[in-house]
Amino acid sequence: MKVDVIVGGLYGDEGKGKVVSCLGSKNQYDYVFRVNASTNASHSVQLEGSDKVIITKQLPSVFFQEEVKFVVGPGAVLNLTALREEVYERPDDIRDRVNIASTIALLIEPYIEKTVGSTISKSLGSTNQGTGVAVVARTRRHCLRLYDVQNCVEGRMRKEELIEKIIFTSIETDEGYFSKKPKSYFVQIAEELLEDYKAIVRKVGEFCIDYTKFLNEIPEESKVLIEGCNGIMLDNLHGLNPYTTSASTAINALMNGANISPYELNDSYIICTGYFCCLNRRPFLTEMSEEEAEKIYVNNDEVDNAEGMRRRVGWFDLPTLRKALTGHKHAKLIMNKLDIMKDLETIKVCTKYLLADGTEVSYMPDNLLEVEEAMPVYEELEGWGDISQVNSKEELPIALRKFLEFIEKETNFEVAYIGNGRGQEALIKMK
Q1: DSSP-assigned beta bridge partners for residue 31
Q2: pLDDT per residue of the chain (431 residues) written in tens, 0 to 9
Q3: What are phi and psi of 38, to 5 degrees?
């Protein structure tokens, strides 16, 4: 098996959906996996020849590839209601091609209810999707799993047993809050889960699989793509803590979430953007002024698909990228959203941080206080104008070539592709 992995290098919102859709269509993969996150990681795709943008939240972002099988591994978290909506909204026929691990943890209404308005969510600016609570439930081993609903649908478990499992995980999540709920609350959740499951089966066929059996039956010559969610700087272990997601997002974590040996890894791609963007309240040293940011917003509204929040935008930050690239030797960069920067006459690149004690560092420090007190040190490069009509690397403006060469030199990672538009095919091969 040959496994390629695509992951975001920053705080999410790097344009993973477009890249996966493009490479997933061109490279003739047999399987495309999603193995981390849930509805907190939505990807958008604008199909070629269409103005409509399709949002994926649970399934891979590959469309109209009839031979491709979709897989959601146990490293992810599944919201059955969101999956039901997604399979009915997709423009392509994916019947008998959806495979979701029976052991996957379910994201249910009590987890969402617990998230919204919580102190931690407010302080960190959560997307309020309930993913973090679901991951905690999985870690503490009281979560509901997909096979629980399957067993009830197929008559191997009584509905009352499913209700009791929902009550148990809710009480374990917050006894003081959920012990006050009437039983009808939990009955309704069970009924909705069962109806969602049946509706998904009606649309795509049986989708709940024995994942161990499934993996062992994948032919050795198969080509596999793993579509990473979130970004490396949101990694719960190695990102900018505590402003991270609830799990690990790095390439090695994705292989683990799929339960595929790292020896199967073929090519890995880390998507970055010509300008940086992020949600919420994390330290963001290269944040643009309002006047500078407007030159980005006028070409791309930068609104998050999960929660509808507007992203903050900033200049290219090499210390942050160097931190993200740590542990990812031999990966290749994909530089996206370069077309959106067409109105910027000067491009600032932060090459290092100046710490409060006067020390200059080339990597983002792990110590949050040091990051908060640091100042960016910039170099300025020439802007490159409109590249939306460029079709090959030979046509790229000299200013953009110099920018890409500068990034390669400063990171020691090669740029394999660049993105010059929102469309599915707006990806130019560089190497």
Answers
A1: 69, 224
A2: 999 999 999 998 899 999 999 999 888 999 999 999 888 778 889 887 788 889 999 999 999 999 999 999 999 999 999 999 999 999 999 999 999 999 999 999 999 998 876 555 555 556 678 888 999 999 999 999 999 999 999 999 999 999 999 999 999 999 999 999 999 999 999 999 999 999 999 999 999 999 999 999 999 999 999 999 999 999 999 999 999 888 899 999 999 999 999 999 999 999 999 999 988 778 999 999 999 999 999 898 777 666 667 889 999 999 999 999 999 999 999 999 999 999 999 999 999 999 999 999 999 999 999 999 999 999 999 999 999 999 999 999 999 999 999 999 999 999 999 999 988 889 999 98
A3: -155, -135
**Measured between alpha carbons, how far is 277 from 259 in angstroms, rounded to an integer?**
31
Q: How far apart are CA 322 and CA 275, in angstroms?
A: 15
Q: Which residues pair with 7 in a beta bridge?
A: 270
Contact between residue 379 and residue 362 where contact means Cβ atoms under 8 Å apart: no
Rounded Cα–Cα distance for residues 330 and 413 (Å):
8
Geometric angle at alpha carbon 177, from 176 and 178, rounded to 5°: 105
Q: For the chain, what percentages of helix, strand and coil (3-state, to nearest 5) are there?
A: 35, 25, 40
Q: What is the full DSSP assignment across 104-156?
A: PEE--HHHHHHHTT-HHHHHHT---SSHHHHHHHHHTT---BHHHHHHHHTTS
| 310-330 burial: b if 16+ Cβ within 10 Å, else e | ebbbbbbbbbbbbbbbeebee
Q: What is the CA radius of gyration of the chain?
A: 22
Max Cα–Cα distance, the chain, nearest Å: 68
| Prediction pTM value | 0.93
CATH code of 272-429, in short, is 3.90.170.10
Written as one letter, the residue type at 349 is V
